[in-house]
Amino acid sequence: MATREITYQQAIQEALRSEMRADPTVILLGEDIAGGATTVDEDAWGGPLGTTRGFIKEFGKERVRDCPISEAGFVGAAVGAATTGLRPVVELMYNDFLGTCLDQILNQAAKLRYMFGGKAKVPMVLRTTIGAGLRKASQHSQTLYSIFAHIPGLKLIAPSTPYDMKGLLISAIRDDDPVVDFEHKLIYWKKGPVPEESYTIPLGKADIKRPGKDVTIVAISRMVDFSLEAANKLTSERIDAEVVDPRTLWPLDEATILESVKKTGKVVIVDESTPNCSMARNIAAIIADKAFDYLDAPVKCVNAPPTPVPFSPSLEDFYLPNPDKIFKTVMSQFKD
Amino acid sequence: MDSEKLIEMYRQMLLIRRFEEKAAEMYMMGKIGGFCHLYIGQEAVAVGAIAAIRKDDYVIASYREHGHALAVGTEPRRIMAELFGKATGISRGKGGSMHIFDAERNFLGGHAIVGGHIPLATGVGFAINYEGKDQVVLCFFGDGAVNTGVFHESLNLASLWKLPVIYICENNFYGMGTAVTRAMAGPEMYLKAKAYDIPGELVDGMNVLEVWEKVGKAVERARHEKIPTFLEVRTYRFRGHSMSDPALYRTKEEVNEQRKRDPIVTFKQKLIAEGILSEEKFEEMEKEIKAIVDEAVEFAEKSPEPPEEWLYEDVYA
């Protein structure tokens, strides 16, 4: 089958559709994901982003289940359904809504296997969106995967391209552990080459998005695009940057990151979450611990500032990491 | 009901009582650490309710769940070993008193966040319907859980989606140390079912036969008509909230008054009065149960500790 250009969102749709066709235990739960406000199933709008548009027609409303705005109730129901044989894919519209259902993720989904001595399993996927830049203000723009990364028992994916999205989401659905899928809403309409057929990308495997020899940039989700842009600009300074995309935040592919850092001797980590206890600082600590002797410059992080996300478009633009901030941070590594 | 079933119900209640008394003893001796929430006084609820379901139905409970596990048939020795944190425990020593789980008997565990497991029961009901099966779910929780948001979210979903779940509140009148009347607006909690358009009923939790009968009706509705039910079962715990709670928030008189409702004593009187069981047979049963409980302790004591490498197992598949 052919590879063609599709969007990140279409990659999500293809992953969901192919797994639902292949496995009748895969079901979708979420707010407005099927008919939402409409009474005509065929006209279903498929949620505010339209990701599941058309699904109810193909799979029926038993499998594509509109839920009330009751996140703790339906995320918890997904955990229960997963322990007794289904593979629910739950949509938490924005990761900011974590606060409404954290107990079900932290104390139920993540704990059951361990505290029941390995006898319970929770094969579910929680799809959610991250990211600032759409002028959605403080409660709909956060990037919270670092909070989830603190919870053993969960696996976390943060795909940055349509290709990674499809392969990682299929792996997540087939995985027997709870996986949280962080989809960046600003790259939903970004296009990229994706094979038509089903394929998987193993969880816990990083990808080198741009090989280079002078400095390593570890970048997560949308920050990969910004880092590639910065890397292009760095060539005019005769700096050849390597961009490493962890893709899976837990389990983390430490080996690929460390190998790159040992080769280049310099590293900048770019992460849209706020800095305290962030993925960036976590990766920085791992590098300090395991590759200290190879470093020629201090480990640097580019995070969002430790503030809520502001609404004002001009303030929000200041808030976000961008290619220029990454460029300048990398350049600071070369000053002696 | 035939006498054999009545005798079995009594036997189960007595097993739970003696098991819990022994657990308390082991706790006081320092053999069991951490939390230990005893079921003493509430035995008729788990036993009556679980007598009303089939072996392939599901049961899920809170952290006061030793009794429910015993009632579904989990081996007492595996539960005791779990309380001791031993490798032979039913949850490999990783759960302890609050996290007994028995996959073989569809016992989906003891859960220790108040109300946290109620949505799970809802999801199990969803899975049953989705797969076209006719099982039901019994979801047990305390009165404290009725004040959590997830209780209300779950009843809304169960009613909306017509799920075969029976939500059973074991109202023992205290959420930890705070009386229900000081914690709940509208303490006639069975009436809350009305808000979700499902049947709600008050049940005397000290009467095992009444529990059995009323849960039985709810089970029929759930199995055949996919109607969920909320039952408020009024019971009483004779001990504190946990082993570390001396229960100073209630009077001795109140506890003594409640002890007159002791579900085991009253049921025994009934069985004797109706000539179903003789005093001698009761003596025999006591001996038999004492042997089971003693053996459970011996098994737990002799079992190995879990090895260090188990720390890292069972986090992921």
Distance between the termini of chain A: 52 Å
How are the strands of the biggest sheet of chain A laid out side by side?
3-2-4-5-7-6-12
The major beta sheet of chain A can be summarized as: 7 strands, mixed
Order of helices and strands of chain B: HHEHHEHEHEEEHEHEHHH
The largest beta-sheet of chain B arranges its strands as: 2-1-3-4-8-7
CATH superfamily of the largest domain in chain A: Thiamin diphosphate (ThDP)-binding fold, Pyr/PP domains
Report the top-level CATH class of the largest domain in chain A.
Answer: Alpha Beta
Architecture per CATH nomenclature, i.e. the level-2 architecture of the largest domain in chain A: 3-Layer(aba) Sandwich
Structural class of chain B: alpha/beta
Question: Which residue ranges of chain B are poorly predicted, with pLDDT under 50 across at least 5 consecutive positions?
Answer: none
Our count of domains of chain A comes out at 2
Give the integer mean of the pLDDT values of chain B.
96
**Would you state the CATH class of chain B?**
Alpha Beta
| Beta strand count of chain A | 14
CATH topology of chain B: Rossmann fold
